[in-house]
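Internal tracking record. Fields below are filled automatically when a chain is submitted to the structure queue. Please do not edit lines marked as system-generated. If the sequence contains nonstandard residues, flag them in the REMARKS field before resubmitting.
Queue: standard
Priority: normal
Entity type: single polypeptide chain
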Amino acid sequence: MMIRWFIRAAVSAVVVAILLSLIPLGSVLEALGRISVWTWSAGVGVLLTGHALNALKVRLLLRAAGSRETGLTAACLRAQFAGLVANLGLPGLAGGDLVRAAYLVPKAGLKAVAVATVTDRVIDTVTLFVLVGVALPFAGTPPLILTVVAHAGEWIAAGLVLAIISGLVLMRLPRFVGLPARIADARRTLAASPSALFGAVLISVSVQSAFVMTNVWLARQAGVTTGLAAWFVAWPLSKLVAILPISLGGLGVREAALVSLLAPYGAPREAVLASGILWQAVFIVTSLVGLLATQALIHSRPSDTAGRTAAKSESGVAPLAKET
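SYSTEM-GENERATED OUTPUT FOLLOWS
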């Protein structure tokens, strides 16, 4: 585990070093100096609000997945920011999802958390692709963008084929014999709560769009005058690249992808890199502040459910069976 961590940290360090070797550090520092503290602080506020809404999205999906436990809103807030902090040091999104699950499973049950987590990731990923697809006709498609979009389509197709093959293989194993039935059951459960699913999709589109606009705001002050549509192409694609488990929380890889994707639209590399560095700083500060705030101000604990169950048992009231 530590070896993988060091490898991904090395990848991030190498990518950052390459970026700074290609883009003069002095130009980056000059662009950074143009961004006001107020703008940066407002970015922290936007990110805090966005991830609070993401916690609400998870709460809606848990409800759609059949969880009716009380106190889940507070647990979702704590889990969301704990997962963000985990993503700072773990590759991709899987580490953060595991941390979120550690907070939510004791209260909502494994089944509901698994369904909600997978649905959450699917919604966010589809949202990013939709933003790119809507913006492309307005932004234009330089050769590099066409290549990236084409390769993204190839990777998606390959991933679907691999998922289908893996599913067919798994279903032949005794341990996974009931997997198709569980998937069908999860689909029926989610379909029974269309309003919750619609709310989750609406939150995803709103939050991702707000994050793009915040990056545009930071970049404008750094000297990037590229059109808005180009950002709605480049930023979601760079985020998708950062999800790949090849770096430390996407550090360096996200910035390199953003610089490369905006260059065909005429964006100055040093200003894009400066805005990317500030966005990374906003993300780190938001994650830590959100974690401290939710841990300190929200007193709900994952063990609360167990405590209530024990209390009911001692008072002679039989606890409700919880499916996990």
